[in-house]
Amino acid sequence: MHLRVFLLVLLIPVPAYANMIWPALYLETRLFSWWAITLGLVIEYLFVRKLYDVPIIKAVLATIGANLVSAVVGIVLIPLAGIVWEIFPGILFYKVLGMGTFNPITWTATFILACLVNLALEGLVYKKVFKLPFQFKSKLSIWFFLANTVSVGVAFASLFIVPVRM
Fold first, then answer.
1. Global pTM?
2. Which residues neighbour 128 within 8 Å (Cβ) at sequence distance 6 or greater?
3. What sign for the dihedral angle of Cα 84, 101, 69, 58?
4. At a CB cut-off of 8 Å and minimum separation 6, what does 109 contact?
5. Of all helices (H) and strands (E), which one includes residue 157?
6. Are 127 and 134 in contact (CB under 8 A)?
7. What is the mean pLDDT of the chain?
8. pLDDT grade, residue 16 (50/70/90)?
9. Contact assessment for residue 109 and residue 156, using Cβ atoms and an 8 Å cutoff
10. Nearest to 85 by CA among 136, 25, 31, 33
């Protein structure tokens, strides 16, 4: 019975709307710009070299590998984290403070969430693929979080310097 209802619902034509946007989607467009990627790679390379004291080639490979994974997986997770924020606790702020999606609290949350998603993905790659010591509750993770704030911060700031055009 439930399967028939499900199939029936699939066959009912409804208009599709693709006009929903939230700050994480805007940020995503800038995270994939060449200058944000280049700056992020250079900064994170320096952090990998200094914090892990590994040879240049291993630092380059680890940095590129970690950022490649965070780009591929992050293309889904960063907007997803943004929509999770929108559902809760964002909606709570909107109702209590009488503001919409594009407000300073949501922009700040978007920035922090993007940095955390990158940190988690890159940390897993450093630990699992390159066998570098990485623990999420350590001083090391704080340093990598700061490295991510620079590259995400540049992309983030560019949204306010040169806004996205519709």
1. 0.84
2. none
3. negative
4. 85, 90
5. helix 139-161
6. yes
7. 88
8. very low
9. no
10. 25
150's tokens: 């620079």
- Backbone torsion region of residue 16, taken as left when φ is above 0, otherwise alpha when ψ lies between -120 and 50, otherwise beta: beta
Instruction: Please state, in angstroms and rounded to a whole number, the distance separating the CA atoms of residues 60 and 91.
Output: 41
Q: In the block, which residue shows the tokens 């699992």?
A: 128
78-108 pLDDT tens trace: 999 999 999 889 888 888 888 888 889 999 9
> Identity (one letter) of the amino acid at 139?
K
Spatial contact of 48 and 63, defined as CB atoms under 8 Å apart: yes
Amino acid of residue 132: L
Between the alpha carbon of residue 148 and those of residues 51, 73, 111, the distances in Å are 14, 16, 10
Of the pLDDT bands very low, low, confident and very high (cuts 50, 70, 90), residue 32 is confident
Alpha-carbon distance of 139 to 89, in angstroms, equals 28
